[in-house]
Amino acid sequence: MTARKLKNSLMGFLVAASAGLLIAVLAVIVWHIFISGVRYLNWDFFTKAPAPFGESGGGVFNAIVGTFLITLAAAAIGTPFGMFAGIYVAEHRGQRFADIVRLCADALQGIPSIVIGIFGYTFLVARFRSYSALSASVALAFMFVPTTARVTEEVLNLVPSGLKEAAYALGARRSSVVWNVSIKTAAAGITSGLLTSMARIAGETAPLLFTAFGSRYIEWNMLRPMSALPLQIYIYASSPYPALQQQAWSAAFVLVLLILLLQFGAKHLIARVLRVKA
Amino acid sequence: MAVQPSRSDRRELVRERAFTAAGLTAAVALVTTILLFLVQLFITSRASRAAFGLPFLWRSEWNPVTEQFGALPMIIGTLITGFGALLISTPFALGIAIFLADYAGKKAAEPVKYLIGLLGGLPSVIFGLWGLFVLVPIVSRFEVWFGKLVGSEALVSSGTTGVGLLAAILLLAIMILPFSASLILESLLVVPMELKEGALALGATKWDTIQNVELPYVRRSTVGALVLSLGRALGETMAVTMVIGNGMRLPHSLFDPANTLASAIANQFLEATSPVYVASLVQLALILFVIAIVINIAARVILRRGVLQ
Amino acid sequence: MEEPVIVLETQKINAWFGKDQVLFDVSAHIPKNRVTAIMGPSGCGKTTFVRTLNGLHLMTPGTRSSGTVLLEGTDTSTMDIVDVRKHIGMVFQRPNPFPTMTVYENVLAGYRLTGQRLARERADQIVETTLNKVGLWSEVQSKLFKAGTSLSGGQQQRLCIARTIAMEPAVVLFDEPTSALDPKSTAIIEELLSDLKSDYSIIFVTHGLQQAARISDYVAFFMLGELVEFGETKRVFVGPQDKRTEDYLSGKYG
User: Fold this and answer.
1) What is the DSSP annotation of chain A?
2) Cα separations in angstroms, A128 against A120, A132, B42, C214
């Protein structure tokens, strides 16, 4: 009897300890990012481009601009494909081709980011013989589409069939029902999914290594190589200069803030959806 | 009941056709993308297959200088880091999932779930950053201590820099922990209350119930979750790249610098100049692509055949 | 004996769900500007029948139907189903106003969903007229621009009726329109059904004998997928011609 009770208490302790460990690890990592990152944060950091070689100072404005442009472009490219694919699968539920589409979306989602980067290089950069932010956005779009399609499909399936029937009964065509009733009703959920996907691709580095390539200058032209926060972090962290390594931490801090912001936006919208449903 | 198509009717028909076309286009595009990936990778790696053929998969020499390339060191590195990370993280993932499913009250569970999400949402490169400047020095100190403890010359000489397989395994374990924990948690939450209550009513302790009722119930989906986590680990790039040391040779110990398929590409692609070098790296990408697809299929098979779930 | 004008005629309607046949050779003549009740025990095919009239039956996967539906003389199978639905409207058992639209927009939903643009004046006029017809105008005048779902259950159902008649259909189908409502709202809607017949032809499905007796001019009795008896309500209830009808009326089937 007591042996079992002892085991019970022991396992209970171990289980709680696992959770504690997780929190501890997370705390340590976040702590480091905060402590090391905050040190270098100043106005220059946010507004200036990297300083010329050897000089101190400078910032990551080029990377901030890059992340902004590349992520938005990727979302702009990926959203229509993702949404319409999700709509197709939801509307043709049960049909074989729709199952195949879903399968392919899953497969695409599982492809390692470095492979996406290599594909981006061979398909776009090598072909057009230049690194460009646009090729990075296309590569990221490949990662954006499957998650968007899945979210769209799931949320559309939650729309009550009574609403759709009422719309059909009024003489609406399928496209009108899907767009004006299903999508509109599911809008908050879809947008929330889009923001979550954006948060994910904003932090990706590997697809950018051989496509956007990075740049020391503030670049607004999508057809030229461009920097981005994750890329800059990698380059600085891999460099032998402590000053740049320091900037890597600060850039990491900024990146985490950006991702938290996007995730917060996504959650807020989810909260609104739940309130509407309740 | 004469029905002449009015202007709005015709507009609606056009809209309907366009909408249907858009849906079909997107669907077809998704399917062709996978094929496109395969074809493009295959074509670009041609030179490597021409030079080395199938033996590329088990050749252990990777030498950019002599232009002799073989994938074995990378494949070994990938497998060791992947399975190693899985081995280390699984007990903790189980522990956390069980904690959240059975021990934590609603108030404690929510923040912990949020933290799991937070950890899981951190970009790979940030893990790499932390790994490089915080974990690697710790591992290095450990390696020196361990080398002294065991008194092994070989160990100390080859790798005490901290970068290498060990650091990569530890870092990967931390990275896949949130992912596997949340998947296992999801399946634990599906276990019917009646089953748990039935066991408790027979006099079982909480842990008895977990061990004998819940865990068997979720066995299949847990295995599926672990397969998916393995897939995640095998494809992980940036964090591993930054701590694994870009070793070109077959690693002999956990302390050695090494490479995974992904890290080799990330570390070397931009410096690769000769066509065979580039093609070989793309060949590594192709191998990685195939591994990812295989794992995806394996996970599906496991998860679909779940009788209880 | 009045000779009613027929607005809708069905000829040998059969319907299947997969291999199960649920309607057998249903031939009916629905009179114009009257209220026709469809009654019968659960599972007798009343709802299925009504859903074959506006094509909703075939939208469920695995369904089939045969037979002809003549709307004011025209075979509906020669028309685009989208057009059929502009002439045959439907109100459902559970009120389902569109949650992303205001009361105002809900009334005009039919136009919006079929891509018909309305001038502001005409739109306002349709909204006011229709809401008046269903007796909602005074109640919701101040809430026109609130969400359609912010109204009470009974009001929501009347809003759905308004939305349907805003399209000026010839026939309006009601599938157990008061099942999900409280007694007070039920009474209001029943009265409304009678009022509406001056402009539209009403067909409503009911699972309650008393409701059929109360408000309908004509009644169709269905059982096991067959149209057993059809006639003026008074006549059918007082002197049913079929034994099955008699049994149903005396409560044998429930």
Assistant:
1) -HHHHHHHHHHHHHHHHHHHHHHHHHHHHHHHHHHHHHTT--HHHHH-PBPPTT---B--HHHHHHHHHHHHHHHHHHHHHHHHHHHHHHHTTT-HHHHHHHHHHHHHHTS-HHHHHHHHIIIIIHHHTS--HHHHHHHHHHHHHHHHHHHHHHHHHTS-HHHHHHHHHTT--HHHIIIIIIIHHHHHHHHHHHHHHHHHHHT--HHHHTTTB--SS----TTS-B--HHHHHHHHHHSS-HHHHHHHHHHHHHHHHHHHHHHHHHHHHHHHHHHHH-
2) 11, 9, 19, 78
> Binning pLDDT at 50, 70 and 90, where does residue C13 land?
very high
- Chain B residue numbers with beta carbons less than 8 Å from the beta carbon of A140 are none
- Higher confidence at residue C148 or residue A267? C148
CATH number assigned to the domain comprising residue A129: 1.10.3720.10
Q: Which of A132-146, A225-239, B109-123 has the lowest mean pLDDT?
A: B109-123
Structural domain includes residue A17: no
pTM across the whole model: 0.88
Interhelix angle A133-157/A113-120, rounded to 10 degrees, is 130
Assess if residue C110 is contained within a domain: no
Alpha-carbon distance C220 to C241, whole Å?
A: 12
CA distance C117 to A268: 35
Nearest-Cα distance to chain C for A47, in Å, is: 42
Mean pLDDT of A55-67: 87
Residue A78 lies in a domain: yes
A278 has a pLDDT exceeding 50: no
Q: Say if C153 is an interface residue toward chain A (CB within 8 Å).
A: no
Contact predicate A272/A257, CB 8 Å: no
> Domain B55-304 - what CATH class?
mainly alpha
pLDDT digits (tens, 9 = 90+) for B126-150: 999 999 999 999 999 888 888 788 7
The distance of C144 to chain A (nearest Cα, Å) reads 19
Domain count, chain C: 1
Nearest Cα residue in chain C from A95: C61
Average pLDDT of each block of 10 consecutive residues along chain B (309 residues)?
67 93 96 95 93 91 90 95 96 92 85 88 95 93 83 61 91 95 92 86 85 88 93 93 92 90 95 92 95 91 62
Neighbours of chain B (3+ CB pairs under 8 A): A, C
C180: domain CATH number? 3.40.50.300
Provide the residue ranges of all domains of chain B, joining segments of one domain with +.
Answer: 1-44, 55-304
Residues in chain B with CB shorter than 8 Å from the CB of A80 are 22, 26
Task: Give the pair of three-digit tokens for residue A143.
Answer: 């990662």
Share of chain A above pLDDT 90, in %: 63
Min CA distance, B247 vs chain C (Å)?
58
Number of helices (H), then strands (E), in chain B: 15, 0
Put simply, whether A239 touches B (Cβ < 8 Å) is: no
Q: Does C169 touch chain A (CB under 8 A)?
A: no
Q: Do B1 and C114 touch (CB under 8 A)?
A: no
Q: What is the pLDDT of residues A26-41, one digit of tens each?
A: 999 999 999 988 887 8
DSSP at C74 = E
User: Which residues constitute the domain of residue C39?
Assistant: 6-96+171-249
Is the pLDDT score of A100 beyond 60? Answer: yes
Q: Is residue A99 part of a domain?
A: yes
Domain that holds residue A262: 45-277
C11 — contact with chain A (CB < 8 Å)? no
Q: How distant is the Cα of B69 from the closest Cα of chain A, in angstroms? A: 18
Residue A167 counted as domain residue = yes
Please give the interface size between A and C, counted as residue pairs whose CB atoms are below 8 Å apart.
Answer: 70
Specify if C154 maps to a domain: no
Question: Residue B208: its pLDDT value, please?
Answer: 84
